Give the backbone structure.
Amino acid sequence: LQLYTGTSLFWESVALCVQNVHVHNSHWCICFCLQTELRSTGTAHHFSYPLNTSDYRILRMDEDHDRMYVGSKDHILSLDLHDINNDPHIIHWPVSERRRMECLVSGKDANEECANFIRLIEPWNRTQLYVCGTGAYNPVCTFVNRGRKPQEEIFHLEPGKIESGKGKCAYDPKLNSVSALINGELYAGVYVDFMGTDSAIFRTLGTKTAMRTDQYNSRWLNDPTFIHVHLIPDSAERNDDKLYFFFREKSSEMGQSPVTQSRIGRICLNDDGGHCCLVNKWSTFLKARLICSVPGADGMETHFDELRDVYIQPTQDTKNPVIYGVFSVSGSVFKGSAVCVYSMADIRMVFNGPFAHKEGPNYQWVAYTGKIPYPRPGTCPGGTFTPNMKSTKDYPDEVINFMRNHPVMYNAVYPVHKRPLVVRTNVDYEFTTITVDQVTAADGNYEVLFLGTDKGTVQKVIVLPRDDLQTEELVLEEVEVFKQQLFVSSVVGLTQLPLHRCDVYGEACADCCLARDPYCAWDGKSCSRYSASQKRRSRRQDVKYGNPIRQCRANKNTLEMVQYGVEGSSTFLECQARSPHAVIKWHLQRDNSDRRKEMRSDGRVLKTEQGLLLRSLQPSDSGMYQCTATEKNFKHTLVKLQLVVLSSRAVNNLLVEGGGGLVPSSLHSSSTQWTPSTGQYKDLLTILSQPEMSLINQYCQDYWQFGDPLLGAIKAKDLKELKEQKKPRNRRHHGDGEENEEQEDAET
């Protein structure tokens, strides 16, 4: 999955909530929504244009044109940000038949490899995009004309502009590559050979010297998987600007067996390489390890070593964005993933710290304690500390040689507070992608995390600060995939969905407040999208504490309903809290009793997230059932259900004998015999006609077929005849036959 906020997703599963699960001082809950519900309400918009393609990847958002550019197999798509199905612009860019046959002859797969998989879309200027694809294991690039203004509706390939994509796009569509087009130069982390063994960070295009990392030097790059690239300025001096690469790679630093480690690397934009050594190769490349771990009580740390995705959250200070990273566990000991947050101050401190150096009989990594040449390796020419050096070619040879042999920093970058923001262990999924939206609520600003998983779901998570410098994590919703929009792409499709669905939190102020969704607030009538411009008196929201007592007026009116069950069968009492963080309890007050008993799961009673299942009903199960929700010391009754257990003998006699049964006032007893009058029988039919009896009918049918061997001879037509008796008759006048029909009705 790929996630992008335009500052839309596809949900599917059953209504389910896992409550009161604590993971590393975090309280979290998962909720699912029906795919059919989202489709019927028009919430989710799946890209439905008929295309023979796959492998959708959102590669560029263009807010100036209100367009989203998507790469897929043999196609380039330009979609409306407001409605992805509204007038899509599509370019078909396949490889030639000759190239496809050459790919097949080399042993590659016809569907998964021998096609043009679009992997790079970068804005070249106001009217053109630079686009690259794998070209059936022969990377190609070209220009796309998108027009100057949105209303021009121009979107086509520029004729005669196709060029080689080597060093810009990978040969293999399964290999990750990252890119950034800055000032006419293309910077890319990519594998540049057919076999997928030569990985490099490249600079191509533009007027500057073409550059790359040192070839086949495992100290620089060791079988990396590129994740993200981002330009982050170091100071007001533009010559200090650095490009940061995020990747994971194999490393033997911790011993002889290679392990996977996550990395952050950087280069200077104005790096021209060395004069005699490292010619046309980066002379400012440095990298450091990214740590995301959970400290244990015994001092040992559980490491999440595999970086999966990175999101850069801008701040008012462009030099200090917040960096979110998604990590998973390497190896097969257990499955887990985490989200860690890093500050640029900590990252710069590591890059300004000691270099890693191997020495000693065991060739161990230690901090380099020798003399550091001037200018300090990794410093940009013409910047704050080297104003008189205009190019890296002016650097002394000892600086260049030191850089070549010491590209790794000794210290690692740890997350803020030295621990992850979100952790998942002992679950059957892992986080794979992340995007973050900053939301202004009535009580402050919050970051909402959208986390994609390897199961095709997306969790919507908010993390709240606590007084003890810890954090509390709340999973607001989980959704399954297939301007306030979230866009999700995958191999099979593309979908958009609003970041908020406030109406799902119910029709009460307390439910809206308890949901603690920063996008939503109670406006006096409904739970709706929060707007900071609304008058304060009309908004009710408390994200940090979720206290409805301070926000909402008391509402003591609870709807009371009557539900019927048949003795010996099962019935389900439905109750589900709108807030995903509430704790549900059931209490029973039996008839003729003032005491209330809490219902707990046992052999006959099963508590579920949707309600209470009672199996093998007994007359003693009759009574008033109350479903209460408790959250943040706020307790309120959601449902009151009066359960009436019908005697199985009465129902059986009614069905078998056409009239045997029990009086309504004695339906709780299974021993009293009664022959009903016509009026009493109509009362029973009225009971059986209640909407709740749709479930009872099914229970009865199951009971007749499987519950009592003595009733095995009853056929399905008995149920049909009973239903026909409840329907009004269409009387016809046919002379003498009319009297006979009326007599039959009276007998019935």
Q: What stands out?
A: The first helix runs from residue 35 to 40. The CA atoms of residues 380 and 462 lie 39 Å apart.
